Description:
43% of the residues lie in helices and 16% in strands. With 357 residues, it is α/β, with parallel strands linked by helices. The chain folds into 2 domains: 3-15 and 257-350, Aspartate Aminotransferase, domain 1 (Alpha-Beta Complex); 31-253, Aspartate Aminotransferase, domain 2 (3-Layer(aba) Sandwich). The strands form 3 sheets. Strands 2-8-7-6-5-3-4 form a 7-stranded mixed sheet, with helices on both faces. The protein has a 3-stranded antiparallel sheet with strand order 9-12-11, with helices on one face. The protein has a two-stranded parallel sheet with strand order 1-10. α7 (155-168) links the parallel β5 (136-142) and β6. It is globular. The protein starts with 7 loop residues before the first strand and ends with a helix. Bound molecules: pyridoxal-5'-phosphate.
Amino acid sequence: MASAAIRADLLSDTVTRPGVAMREAMATAVVGDDVFGEDPTVRELEERVAGLLGHEAGLFTPTGSMANQLGVRLHVKPGEELVGDSLAHVLRAELGAAAILSGISSRTWVSQRGRFRAADAAELMITGVGPYQVCTALVIVENTHNFGGGTIQSLDEIQRARELTRERGVAMHLDGARLWNAHVATGVPLDAYGREFDTVSVCLSKGLGAPVGSVLVGSSDAMAEARVWRKRFGGGMRQVGILAAAGLWALDHHVDRLALDHARARRAAEAMGAAAPGAVDLSTVETNIVIVDVAAAGWPAPDFVAAALARGVRTYAVGPGAVRLVWHLEVDDAATDHAIDVLTALLSERRSDSDPA
Ligand SMILES: Cc1ncc(COP(=O)(O)O)c(C=O)c1O
């Protein structure tokens, strides 16, 4: 696939490449051996993210998946279970890691677009069943919700779940890969979300545009234990301050600008909705992700993805008739205009073919 031909890369917000200023910050970072806890730039990043999220300590990890799996490992003993929604990244896209790395089972509820409701978690949790059934040890919440289409979770529902889980001795982990987007879209402070959870993972490599890296936060004791498990999982890294520096740079420069991604996603969603009524439900466009029901405009998703790519717009099929578009810092107004031209034309094309004469 020739990337030079791509004029709007809406595949994912993970495709961003570090710019010159970020690379300079990386090149000049002060570093040390982080396995010995001697990398000042990593320590600065861990402390800063923990502070932002209202927790005592943080741990830098190479990926969001590792940060999530460390959260799982901390809270769920072998033979216990976690519960989450059926579209959650931890359950759907981490390739069975919870079962393999932690020896646990998982059960899911079905949600509308990944929307979290405390009642769904409460209904599924089983506690105090001794040797007879599997005990629930952890509830996972994802905010924003990726496969749900950038869905923002309600703080009220999260707080309700916190009360219920506290009463029953169940932990809560937040997969906050895109918590930055929820914070920018709603104005809810990061720590207001963060404090409701025992552990939170956030990604620096999605909308924030760092090349790699996530941070897990929690209590000092929990992070000390997570540090041991990170080494066991093969994630002990050495002079990794060069990567942490990219994360610090991203925190300084790339959080507030997420509002631009949200505005561009909405502008495109409105244009597509006008071109093909029924293809985009505008009430579901909350952040930087738009799910397009291309089937409603007569397209199988793989054909739509191929046709858009042939015209310079890269997208991703999330189902047989649904395509996901993700805005990020490499999709500016001009790229958004191009995407709108191409995608609205495609949506109108088949619609008119299939319209009765
Ligand atoms: C919601 C969510 N959580 C976790 C991850 C995992 O991040 P990584 O790819 O760094 O493992 C992703 C990746 O897209 C994600 O969307």
